[in-house]
Amino acid sequence: MTPELKMSRTYVTLLALLTVLLALSSFVLIRSLCVLSSDPVSPEADSASVPSSTGSAKDPKGPLKRIFMKEADASNFFRRRSRRGTKSQDEINAEQRQVLAADERKREFHEEKRNEFESYAEEEHDEQNERTRESTEQWREFHYDGMHPPQEYNRQSI
Questions:
Q1: CA nearest neighbour of 35 among 44, 26, 27
Q2: Which of 32, 45, 144, 147 could make an SS bond with 75 (beta carbons 3.0 to 4.6 A apart)?
Q3: 3-state SS string for the chain
Q4: Torsion 49-54-59-60 (CA) sign
Q5: What is the pLDDT of residue 42?
Q6: Closest by CA position to 140, among listed 152, 126, 128, 158
Q7: How far is CA 68 from CA 43, 49, 52, 75, in A?
Q8: Full-model pTM
Q9: What Rg do the C-alpha atoms of the chain give, in angstroms?
Q10: pLDDT at 131 exceeding the cut of 70
């Protein structure tokens, strides 16, 4: 046997074993997640529901009441809200409020950044003017001969 043939057999065997392992683990996972219902009409809709006929069990209270719902309610929920189902006006309004709030936060953020940049640019401009004025004053002092009055042009009056 050639080494390539041995290696390809090893890869095929390993791939087959991994496929079987994946299938078994997914089957066990799905089996453990499914809740068996008495109505096998729609197993997708009933998989997240609690059977209605729990004689000795009490109704859940507190946060569990929000998580679990009756079997009929779960079926109706999944039937009523398909992927292309229309949204209620309350859902549309809530989404619109979220979009408007996000837009407002973006607007405030950009306004704050713009104000920061404007103050930075103003400070830089002021510093540049101060450096220019100082260098001009130094040049005038260096070139002043003491005999003529200093030039008044281009001088800031305070």
A1: 44
A2: 45
A3: CCHHHHHHHHHHHHHHHHHHHHHHHHHHHHHHHCCCCCCCCCHHHHCCCECCCCCCCCCCCCHHHHHCCEHHHHHHHHHHCCCCCCCCHHHHHHHHHHHHHHHHHHHHHHHHHHHHHHHHHHHHHHHHHHHHHHHHHHHHHHHCCCCCCCCCCCCCCC
A4: negative
A5: 46
A6: 152
A7: 16, 7, 11, 13
A8: 0.36
A9: 39
A10: yes
pLDDT, tens only, 104-115: 999 999 999 999
| Lowest-confidence pick of 11-20, 43-52, 53-62, 82-91 | 43-52
CB 76 within 8 A of CB 70: no
In this predicted structure, the answer to whether residue 40 has a pLDDT above a threshold of 70 is no
The pair of three-digit structure tokens given for residue 147, joined into one six-digit string:
């005999």
pLDDT, residue 79, reads 67
